[in-house]
From TrEMBL, chain A:
<dbReference type="Pfam" id="PF02771">
    <property type="entry name" value="Acyl-CoA_dh_N"/>
</dbReference>
<protein>
    <submittedName>
        <fullName>Acyl-CoA dehydrogenase domain-containing protein</fullName>
    </submittedName>
</protein>
<keyword id="KW-0560">Oxidoreductase</keyword>
<feature type="domain" description="Acyl-CoA oxidase/dehydrogenase middle">
    <location>
        <begin position="129"/>
        <end position="220"/>
    </location>
</feature>
<keyword id="KW-0274">FAD</keyword>
<dbReference type="InterPro" id="IPR013786">
    <property type="entry name" value="AcylCoA_DH/ox_N"/>
</dbReference>
<dbReference type="GO" id="GO:0005886">
    <property type="term" value="C:plasma membrane"/>
</dbReference>
<dbReference type="InterPro" id="IPR046373">
    <property type="entry name" value="Acyl-CoA_Oxase/DH_mid-dom_sf"/>
</dbReference>
<dbReference type="InterPro" id="IPR009075">
    <property type="entry name" value="AcylCo_DH/oxidase_C"/>
</dbReference>
TrEMBL record, chain B:
<dbReference type="InterPro" id="IPR037069">
    <property type="entry name" value="AcylCoA_DH/ox_N_sf"/>
</dbReference>
<dbReference type="GO" id="GO:0050660">
    <property type="term" value="F:flavin adenine dinucleotide binding"/>
</dbReference>
<feature type="domain" description="Acyl-CoA dehydrogenase/oxidase C-terminal">
    <location>
        <begin position="230"/>
        <end position="375"/>
    </location>
</feature>
<dbReference type="InterPro" id="IPR036250">
    <property type="entry name" value="AcylCo_DH-like_C"/>
</dbReference>
<feature type="domain" description="Acyl-CoA dehydrogenase/oxidase N-terminal">
    <location>
        <begin position="6"/>
        <end position="120"/>
    </location>
</feature>
<dbReference type="GO" id="GO:0003995">
    <property type="term" value="F:acyl-CoA dehydrogenase activity"/>
</dbReference>
<feature type="domain" description="Acyl-CoA oxidase/dehydrogenase middle">
    <location>
        <begin position="128"/>
        <end position="202"/>
    </location>
</feature>
<keyword id="KW-0285">Flavoprotein</keyword>
<protein>
    <submittedName>
        <fullName>Acyl-CoA dehydrogenase domain-containing protein</fullName>
    </submittedName>
</protein>
Amino acid sequence: MDALEKFRAETREWLEANCPASMRTPMKEGEEPWGGRKAVWKNPDSKIWMERMAERGWTAPTWPKEYGGGGLTKEENMVLQQEMRRIHARTPLMSFGLWMLGPALLEFANEEQKKEHIPPIVRGEIRWCQGYSEPGAGSDLAGLQTKCEDKGDHYLVNGQKIWTSYADKADWIFCLVRTDTSKKHEGISFLLIDMDQPGVETRPITMISGASPFCETFLTDAKAPKKNLVGELNKGWTIAKRLLQHERAMISGMGLGGGGGAGPGIEQAAKDYIGEENGRIADPSVRDKIVRQKMDSQAFALTMRRSAEEAKAGQGPGAASSMFKYYGTELNKRRYELLLEVMGIQGLGWEGEGFSEDELTTTRAWLRSKGNSIEGGTSEVQLNVIAKRVLELPE
Amino acid sequence: MALVLNEEQALLKETAEQFFQEKVPVANFRKLRDSKDENGYDTAVWREIANLGFAGIMVPEQYGGTDFGPVGLGLVLEQAGRTLAATPLISTVLLAGSAIQQGGTSAQRQKYLPLIASGEIVMALALEEGAHHNPCAIATKAEAAGDNFKITGKKVFVLDGHVADVLIVAARTSGGPKDTSGITLFLVDTKNTDGLKITRTHMADHRNAAIVEFDGVSVPAANVLGSVDGGWDVLEPALDIGRIGIAAETLGLIQQVFDTTVDYLKERKQFGKVIGSFQALQHRAAELFCEVELCRSVVLEALSAVEERRNDVPKLASLAKARLAEASRLITNEGLQMHGGIGMTDEYDIGLFMKRARVAAATLGDANFHRNRYAELDDY
């Protein structure tokens, strides 16, 4: 048996012994394992599963062992993912620390910062949120104004962030702050701030879907020790951009249907809600729209795979993340529009009797999907990036 | 699985690129068109293509081919698409070649495959009968008469029909007009055959097509390709390979139009600026870029599926054909618009690409046909 197959056997055995039965079922609303100091464990198995996986570093399988990661090779990680899929294991930990901050810290932070911040991310002990956008700095992110002053032994921060996902549930915030007002991009720094202090206040924003995943975050004389500056002073924009790539990669994956829950495909939904004739969706125009959607989706999935293979082979377009962010989110929005069209009035319920839980979830998810092409850089910004960086069209 | 080229394939791509750019540029195609060339393709170029081994790329080595495989052929077709090179690759190598390999008796293989690989024969598939691709709607009849069959009917849009040495004719030997069973394929010599009338048709893309009429054409039973009534089993896989080949050619076409358009955006000045600095055009160009990238992925995947003999070839053939048909319409339309008035002139190449794109899109099933098929294959 070669090493990888041995690893597979051991992994399978360990997963069998350690993955609780309820963690082998599709994720339920409210059971998402976000971790953090304020974590609420609706299903106690979620906590057990997260801790067992974290113990091995398998919440961050490919991160270095010295920072608590699993230290797995790409191939080993692929085996782990396959084995987890085999038993339908839920993801043990969801977190912006894992998806966004961690990769940036590994690349840009100093040794002390890595030792301090990465292990708690892996263990799900600290929940992070992202302090990027401001009321006056959306697409023009580099126009941000949150003021950060050097007070000798610490930084003093004043300003307001907006669209901070789950800020009300987070423990720490990674922030872009202005440390030089005479320059735009070169006056931005990347700062880590503990939210457990009087100078940090959060206020949830109710969205069109009825949910409040985003907050306004007010920083009023918030303090951060100087060691919390990641990278050099005024060089935060480089880190910010890299982190945005991770964020775009995360959001673009939604185009593949990850955002809408599993279950039967849209073609089955059409047969159920519209009816069928001779095994075909009864309405030919809806059927054609569904084929287009599925073709787009398959073409997109193949392109994601090609890009991954090219990256492995050391080729490939650098600004690919913008293409995926643009296409993936637009695709996801179209998918929900089509799903709603297929479901008729059953896709338009808000709450209460007359609708199944899945139907109500779809309505809310349709509304939520509208944000996909706004957050993490709007579709228009992505098209700008492609035009300028890939096609090299002039200003 | 291989969406990235290996070293051997990368080398082949380079060879093909150099060959078509240097030996068969668009000027070559214009010359054929302007001189109303009788063959409609450059026979000297075709010989060179055969010498490079491109004609034998799908033919096994035992029959004199290079057996480089479908991905290799796709790379060649893509490069041919970039310069609008008119060759019998689709008719002879993809359609006839794969039908004979799939359904031919050993005698038929021995006879035809080496000739295909060496470029010494041109073959054509006589299939279509109406304005739209509808491969099982066959009214052309073949009736058994002793050891022979008598074929009667009319075929249209027979690619390379007027220059073909041998036709593969799809005729009905039994069944109703839309049944897949009851179709039989025949190898019919175009020389010295009584009752056969071939008329060249002039299409907008200035490539070769023909109307072929059969008035009781007598064909020996030994010329049946595949089995009597079972021609569909040979025809359908060959059509899928043809569809994927056309998608590969179209990929080269859209890449060329896209690149040319982006270059033009960087060069043309209006209002004192290059027009590529206008966001209205930048965003459209960026969208076209995404479309080209998606097209490249589906074509590569479809070619790989053929190479690996996977069972999702039909679905991927329809995906590739439909996507490339739609994308080529969008990209040639947008490319022409962004070129402005100059794009409307015959002197400029973009119109030639647009005309080829439309004919290629209609060949072996347009986007509507393939969307319907894609859904049928998934049972909805």
